[in-house]
Amino acid sequence: MAPKVLISDELSDAAVQIFRDRGIEVDFQPKLGKDKEKLAEIIGNYDGLAIRSATKVTEKLLENATNLKVIGRAGIGVDNVDIPAASQKGIIVMNTPFGNSITTAEHAIAMMMAVARQIPEASASTHAGKWEKSRFMGVELTGKTLGVIGAGNIGSIVCDRAKGLKMKVVAYDPFLSEDRALQIGVEKVELDELLARADFITLHVPLTDATRNILSAEAIAKTKAGVRIINCARGGLVDEAALAAAIKSGHVAGAAFDVFEVEPATDSPLFNLPNVVCTPHLGASTSEAQENVALQVAEQISDYLLTGAVTNALNMPSVTAEEAKVMGPWIKLSGHLGNFIGQMTDEPIVGINILFDGVASKMNLKALNSAVIAGIMRKFNPDTNLVSAPVIAKERGIKISTTQQDATGTYEGYIKVTVTTETRERSVAGTVFSDGKPRFIQIKGINVDAEIGADMIYTTNKDVPGVIGTLGGVLGENGVNIANFTLGRAAEGGEAIAILYVDSRPSEEVLDKVRATGKFGQVKPMHFDVN
Ligand SMILES: NC(=O)C1=CN([C@@H]2O[C@H](COP(=O)(O)OP(=O)(O)OC[C@H]3O[C@@H](n4cnc5c(N)ncnc54)[C@H](O)[C@@H]3O)[C@@H](O)[C@H]2O)C=CC1
Ligand SMILES: O=C(O)CCC(=O)C(=O)O
Known about the structure:
Number of strands: 22
CATH topology of the largest domain: Rossmann fold
CATH class of the largest domain: Alpha Beta
Structural class: alpha/beta
Bound molecules: 1,4-dihydronicotinamide adenine dinucleotide, 2-oxoglutaric acid
Shape: globular
CATH architecture of the largest domain: 3-Layer(aba) Sandwich
Strand order of the largest sheet: 8-7-6-9-10-11-12
Distance between the termini: 31 Å
Helix content: 25-40%
């Protein structure tokens, strides 16, 4: 029987044609994504689901998706898909990471021009038969400073176009190396400097814990008077209420928003304010981009359903079915090692070395490499997939090297990841035990044996008596149960580390109590996707 695919959002007809040409039964119901109940009723009939952003693939919806094998997002952001829930059900989630980047960058530039010259309001006034020439005084872009927050795929295209408009471009992106900044011709600055210098600020970061409210009331207060703010990335990056207040006070001269905290946005503090340009998440809406992403997603879904080939997946690297059986736990381990390093690193990475030892060195290294790199890069964008991660890392000028060896040692095989930043080097190694469970076995050259859990705490301290008791005591008093506690030290009395697997995510308040004991260097909460 031919596989069946449901398209539940507005997608170019090109996708329907591809599915038909490939012998796949396709049901094109572009409005269904907005009808949760109806979607839940029929989702069980399909092997594949092709979506944009209107369809919300929740854990609840997936409970009904009894035949679903693949979800394809025609676009970049997969924040509308519960990926851990999909992974748990063995459903592959794919995106199309580059197909709409140029179009979205162009939308940001269009929004910047619209807000600089008040084009929407001037147009509405002219349509109304008024001729308010003196009401609409604009500002020139030439010579102005554009502050770009997030200089990835889209942000770097925006930088390029803005330089063509003779603007000065400064960028804040903790993952941008000096080399890459030089290559794209921007000045790399810290956020506060960007806020103080920019005449226009445009955001091109994913929505993560670190970027949520990156333009908070406090940050907006640090901006230059008369600044104009453009958001074509994700709602939630800017505190809309704080921005509305700053526009009303006259500190911010205008804003152009394509994305909102709640979408579809039927109400927002920004609506109906003077010189605020709004569009309904149109960043990717050009015929060219929609054709690109529709064709790509239809080919990817068809390939997977017909041949098992995996492309641009967020939750599985490209491996054959045979390899997947043996490599499954090693792929998980690789992701955890990358994730560990990503969570430890807050500065630009210039090099990554991945050492494969013993059995690991004889596997499909491309898949393991991708999983490590994606684990690292997801710190900076959770939408990074296993295929795009190495490409993006290379584009950012990160030098990736691998080492293979077959040394005799304690383990049948292990993987060690060493990351070099502009100021230091960090490493973590892990292996897979015979129970199929990945373990961390070395951190910063110190041997450990740490089971990997969803929530962990990493600490550093001096190897002196009483430290472990203090840590256990504070956590215990605050209801944090320790499932596994691993210690290691460089030498007696020297640097020591502890890595704890805890049953619940500790609050910052509890971690602050640990820090307040004064016995620890670092106290870092960590999170791993163990599904
Ligand atoms: N409006 C629309 O229709 C569209 C919106 N988007 C959104 O645009 C955003 C950017 O997409 P891409 O450029 O493809 O992603 P990308 O992953 O290529 O770039 C994101 C950049 O943000 C940087 N970053 C991460 N955390 C940061 C932080 N705390 N501070 C500053 N920089 C940080 C990363 O290092 C990276 O360089 C995403 O949220 C995406 O979903 C994408 C397409 C269409
Ligand atoms: O599909 C769309 O219109 C939205 C695109 C988008 O936001 C993305 O690709 O992240």
